[in-house]
Amino acid sequence: MPVTALVSAKSCGVTTSALALTLASKRPSLLAECDPAGGTIRAGFLQGEVGAGFGLYHLAAAERTGPDALAQAFASHLWPLDEAGHRKLLPGLTDPAQAGALVRTWPALSEVMHVLADEAGYDVVIDAGRLAFESGHLHPTLTPAAVLHQADLVLLVVRGTEQSLTLARHVIDPLRTELAERGSGPDGLGLLLIEDGPYRAHQVAEALKTPVLAGLPSDAGTAGYFTGGGRPPRGYGRSPLLRHARTAAEQLEAAASRRQIQRQYPSRPGHAQIAGVLQRLTERGGVRG
Ligand SMILES: Nc1ncnc2c1ncn2[C@@H]1O[C@H](COP(=O)(O)OP(=O)(O)OP(=O)(O)O)[C@@H](O)[C@H]1O
Ligand SMILES: [Mg+2]
Fold first, then answer.
1. Position 167 pLDDT exceeds 90
2. Which CATH number covers residue 169?
3. Staple partner for 90: which of 32, 111, 157, 261, CB 3.0–4.6 Å?
4. What does the alpha-carbon distance between residue 24 and residue 38 come to, in Å, rounded to a whole number?
């Protein structure tokens, strides 16, 4: 199951698309809100249901204790997004000033998310926020760089508008180079197109010299629900956004599988230890939901 990270050049619908993919997945799924600028799902979709004592920030201290402590903390900070608990959220930072504390946590946290994907069969979707570069490389504090380096797929979310493509043109090449030099390879990079504006998928792919791996429709009603919470709009289950997100999740799974077949991933040391902790916690119901 893939670990898919979503990023943008500027507020294109990363959080909304990440929620749509997580809620539409056919498998157990996790949305990790790793946007260093702060999470918005807690105050938005969840309408303040989750307190500040819960979520990503608290994993930084656990990581300093060791991999077991991090895996335990990770499991106990997952919030159920549905009644059955098949879809979970790792709530993001409540204050962007907390991002500095996470810099040394990202590599180990990324490891845990890959274990959840590889050993427990989860679809893991990461909201990695907006891209920021410093001296030609991903900014160490303003982006979860290590998480992007290790993701199976990194999707730049774009809209089919001139404004979105203009901004995306500036970040796509540095991002490709970053994944080539420090990540799992440039072939992990793709586009997620929000079908808004005059440009179609083939034009967007051509303009950015990058494949469109999936598309989501412009659907203000469902997107508004994901952004602000409250009552689901009428026909939510069959809404264009959710229906297309189901297809998109399958397309991403297929793209990640193709990639896995084409290349030999380096083994990830520490898997066995973390997998043991996650499994024990799941068996005794330690993971919420
Ligand atoms: N598929 C869509 N159809 C219609 N509106 C959408 C869609 N996706 C997102 N939006 C709307 O666009 C706005 C920005 O979306 P969102 O918060 O998901 O973007 P973001 O990239 O996470 O932004 P930020 O970088 O500020 O966190 C919201 O008002 C949201 O409801
Ligand atoms: Mg966002």
1. yes
2. 3.40.50.300
3. 32
4. 24
